[in-house]
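Researcher: I'd like a structural prediction for the single chain below. Treat it as a standalone chain; there are no partners to consider.
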Amino acid sequence: MTQFIPNVTFAFREGDEAPEGGGCPIGGEFVFKTANELFGNKRVIIFSLPGAFTPTCSTYQLPGFEQQYSDFKAKGIDEIYCVSVNDAFVMNEWARSLGIKNVKVIPDGAGKFTRLMGMTVDMSDIGFGPRSRRYAAIVKDGMVEHMFAEPDSSASDPDPYGVSSPENVMAHA
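Model: Treating it as a single chain, here is the predicted structure.
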């Protein structure tokens, strides 16, 4: 089955700077970009995860894609994007805290992109609410070439990770 990426509008935050005394970065503005602007006319990797600042996402998945960025570029990938059901402030701070320079973070604060991708999972039992399943996709010109969705969580594996890992995606790039 062929799947086109839904053309939603994302609300990014650009230009915020931390005040001298510390605190939340301020002074920037919201910048709106559509999925077609981000993913159209190129070959990209989109990966999504349950949340910023969570263990597997922060230890393995986002840093792994960042570390292998040049290897993906060598295989014809134009950009790598990380989507999470978090707002732009959280996504920017998460990328900053991890030293992410190449992977672009995308805030899906209301979860609209995640829902239209069919990847919403209810994580209310641990206080998260609706979030994204962990997945990755290779997308060419807005159409999914390969989808790598993790299996449902279970009591024995509450946070499945492997199918959407950079190493597995690299084998198909």
